[in-house]
Amino acid sequence: MRAEHPSDVDRLTVTVVICVYTEDRWEDILAAVSSVRAQSRPAAETLLVVDHNPALRERLAKEFGERAGGGPAAGVRVLANAGPRGLSAGRNTGIAAARGEIVAFLDDDAVAERDWLHHFVRGYADPHVMAVGGRTVPAWSSGRRPAWFPEEFDWVVGCTYRGIPPGKVRVRNVLGGNASFRRSAFDAAGGFATGIGRDGDRRPLGCEETELCIRLSRALPDAVLLIDDRAVIHHKVPAGRERFGYFRSRTWAEGLSKALVTRSVGAGRGLESERRYTSRVLPAGVLRALRDAALGRPGAVGRAGAIVSGVAAAAGGYVVGSVRARRGAAGFSVAPVTPLAPPVNGAGGGREEREGAYG
Hints:
Structural class: alpha/beta
Distance between the termini: 41 Å
Radius of gyration: 20 Å
Strand content: 15-25%
Largest sheet: 9 strands, mixed
Order of helices and strands: HEHEHEHEEHEEEHHEHHHHH
């Protein structure tokens, strides 16, 4: 594959999109924005997309509003989700408003390490690369991982799980809370599907990034999707998500979501990575836990039980979701993402362009 000249990669502009929905995460939002501002490879702009919460949008607009002698504070723009409630529509709003050639996504309760964007951008030296994801490390509210919580299920709390190969590797899909895409990828494949991902604190559905990445690979057969584990963020795990009840509901919801994805893209691609995960990674996790139990290590029996329970819950959700999908009781939609303004080098532009249709 042909590599771009290093100077061409250095000229790529980056928009960071952070979707937000509740004032309960105010300090987390500010921390996320601060981590973007501190990047060794600066972003051209940061977009805060507010999910149908006028009070939060007004508060953020005051925090990052127009300043004397210039535009939004430190290149931060505050937008309202222009679509239906939910994370997917919020991301699509950010994509439409983005002026960067690369669009990066960061969770509102996560902070990025200093070289996060640097490693993302370097991944695009190959012009075939359409997406680059990173490694997401859990920041447990209790200060440490619950003894029963298996690393193989860290995806339950939105983090990189045991089983993803280390280093810089080609993958089927990136994980949405720590990912980047070429802006042209959305021109080719459309945006995130609505009706499949999260909607605030309601049932913790997911898989929207999986569906998008499979759709992207179909639209662009030569597309390369990577994960570079040097692009690190730290994702806050609240106390409620350290409990087994959340673990069970999240794995059940994953099964529901996966049924929607396979209904759309087929079981071959929709379950390609999951087959390896369930046939190799999880059995190895159970054996590891049983070995630790024999050595008297705390939490080992609980980890083995959690793996078995997680598989059972996901399988149950998948069966129920498949029945619902066949009956037409569940579904999602994909719409093209129309940019509000063409990409530019840097974060300049007049006031009308900055505010766009959502200002």
